[in-house]
Design a protein that fits this description.
There is one protein chain. This protein is mostly helical. The protein is built from seven helices and no strands. Associated with the spliceosome.
C-alpha cells in the first residue's frame, strides 16, 4: 500500500482528514512512513424519501430491546427472591415466638402448681371440701391468667413483626417501590373548624381546600371567641391593611401621571405615600 494524497496524514485513511482523525497521534505519521495504513471507514448512505428521513423508528431493531427485557426480568426475579426470604424469616420468627410463649406458659403453670402445693402443705388442718374449692378457684385463675398472657404475647408479637414490615413506617422512605400515605397534620385534640358553629347559615366551609375563610363565631364577643377567627383573619392582620392602602395609592397616582410603582420602586412609593398621609393630616 502507498499513501494517497489527500488522505489522513496521521493514519492514512482516505475517508477523513487529520482534523477528524480519532487515532492516537503517531510518532512518525503515515504520510512520512507509508506503513501501517488504516483502512477506510464504511460510511452507509441510505437513499430515503421524505417519510423515511422523518421516520423516528428508522433503524430500530426489536432484538436490541430484548436485553432490557432480560435485565428487568432478572430484577423481578431478585425482588421475588428477597420477598420470599423475608416471608420465610418472618415465619421463622413467628414460630420462635410461639415456642417461647408455650415455654413461658408452661413455666407459669409449674410455678403456680408449686405454690399451690406449698400452700396445701402449710394448711394441714383444712378439710377436703376446702381443698376442692381451692382447686376450682385455681383452675379459674389459671384460665384467666393464660388468656391475659396470650393477649400480651400477641401484642408483643405484633410489635416485633412491625420491625420487619417496611410498609408500616409513618414517615417517607427513600425506596421508591414502597407506598407511603399522606397523613392529615391537624392535631386531633383541637376541635375541627366546621364543628365550632353547627348553624347552617354560619361561615362556609370548603371541604376540598379545608378552608373556612369567614369567622364562624363572629356573633360572640372577643373574649368568648376561641383562637380560630377564620382563615382570612391572619391574612388581614399586621401590615396587610397598610400594604393594601399603599398599592391603591400607587395605582391612583400612576393613573394621574405620577411615575410610581409599588413593586419596581417600593421605597419611593412608601415615601410618597407617607408624605401624602402627612399632608392629608395637616
Amino acid at each position: 500500500t502507498k499513501f494517497i494524497k489527500g488522505a489522513c496524514e496521521n493514519c492514512g485513511a482516505t475517508t477523513h482528514t487529520i482534523k477528524e482523525c480519532v487515532e492516537r497521534p503517531r510518532a512518525v505519521a503515515a504520510r512520512h512512513s507509508g506503513k501501517n495504513l488504516m483502512p477506510d471507514e464504511y460510511i452507509e448512505k441510505l437513499e430515503l424519501d421524505y417519510d423515511g428521513k422523518r421516520d423516528r423508528w428508522n433503524g430500530f431493531q426489536p432484538d436490541d430491546y430484548k436485553e432490557v427485557i432480560d435485565e428487568w426480568e432478572k430484577v423481578e426475579m431478585e425482588r421475588r427472591r428477597v420477598k420470599a426470604a423475608e416471608m420465610e424469616e418472618r415465619a421463622k420468627l413467628k414460630e420462635r415466638l410461639k415456642v417461647q410463649k408455650k415455654a413461658l406458659k408452661k413455666q407459669r403453670k409449674q410455678r403456680r402448681r408449686q405454690l399451690r402445693r406449698q400452700a396445701e402443705g402449710r394448711d394441714t388442718d383444712t378439710g377436703t371440701d376446702t381443698g376442692a374449692d381451692s382447686d376450682v378457684q385455681d383452675s379459674d385463675t389459671d384460665s384467666d391468667t393464660d388468656s391475659d398472657s396470650d393477649a400480651s404475647d400477641d401484642e408483643d408479637l405484633g410489635e416485633k413483626m412491625k420491625d420487619f414490615d417496611k410498609t408500616t413506617a409513618t414517615v417517607a422512605t427513600k425506596d421508591d417501590k414502597l407506598r407511603t400515605t399522606t397523613r392529615n397534620l391537624r392535631i386531633r385534640e383541637d376541635t375541627a373548624k366546621y364543628l365550632l358553629n353547627l348553624d347552617v347559615n354560619s361561615a362556609f366551609y370548603d371541604p376540598k381546600s379545608r378552608s373556612m375563610r369567614d369567622d364562624p363565631l363572629k356573633h360572640l364577643k372577643d373574649e368568648e371567641k376561641g383562637s380560630f377567627r377564620g382563615d382570612n383573619f391572619v391574612r388581614n392582620a399586621g401590615d396587610a391593611k397598610s400594604l393594601t392602602e399603599l398599592m391603591i395609592f400607587a395605582w391612583d397616582s400612576y393613573k394621574h401621571g405620577e411615575k410610581i410603582h409599588d413593586t419596581a420602586q417600593p421605597t419611593q412609593a412608601l415615601k410618597m405615600w407617607q408624605g401624602f398621609k402627612q399632608r392629608s393630616k395637616d
